[in-house]
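Lecture notes, unit on protein representations.

Consider one protein chain, 296 amino acids long.
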Amino acid sequence: MPSLIAATRSWVRRHARRILAGPVAVVAVGLIAFGFFAGFGATSSATQPIVSFNSQVLAKGQYLFDEHCSACHGVGGVGSSRAPTLVPVGAAAADFYLITGRMPLNNHGDQAQAHTPYFDASQIEALVSYVADLPRIHGETKLGPGIPSILPLCSKAQKRGPTGDQVAYPGSDPNCVTLSYGQATYALDCAQCHQIAGAGGILANGMIVPSLTQAPPLVVAEAMRVGPQPMPRFGTGQLDQKQLSAVVHYVQYLHHPEDRGGLTVGGFGPVGEGFVGILGGLGLLLVVSRFIGTRA
């Protein structure tokens, strides 16, 4: 028996590097891919912007627009063959695309994705104010959505349901919303694309659905009102202020959810768990098969 143990140890030392090379490579590639997809859609932080119609702010906004935006969107934002008109879009659209770095866009045919903002806060304020003033400049009456406001989250003292959870709709208090209402609205209108954990994904034709795990409240609210491609636009007829606010708070909860089931594996739910299971299982099978093959 001692001689058998010694022989086994000697064999393992001679063949360990070759046996483990395959599984280590599989695990490394899997972890790199998982980390890449987990980082999709990171957005910059944002604070509540100010839309000012001060003449100096508007003049600054017009100058920046003529320098950086008019080549595609046309002088005065009337649009061109390369980009649509900005006259009716409103302040929310301008603010969303600028604070997330989606604009300016290098190639007008590409999907606008989140990057580091090109402009600083004062420049964004001026550009947003100028775009919000375009309907007046062109004599248009149709106005796009303004910067959305977000109702606060209800306190823990809010009325509770029979199971102890907060009621789904805070009918007794019109000035707050609950996470349970946000979860229900999110599951109905958002989870099909962004996944229930907000991890995002990929659609047909290479369209990317960004992750929401780092999206600030204002970015989430503006995205629902604006509807950046390929996302549909949710106007007040589809989602009222309570529904929008509830979804915003639920998305913030998803940043650091209460995980009662243990490790979250990146927050991808069953997708991530299955990925790790398959990766670990295949790696183990590869080790065993190599061991059996070399023994044979």
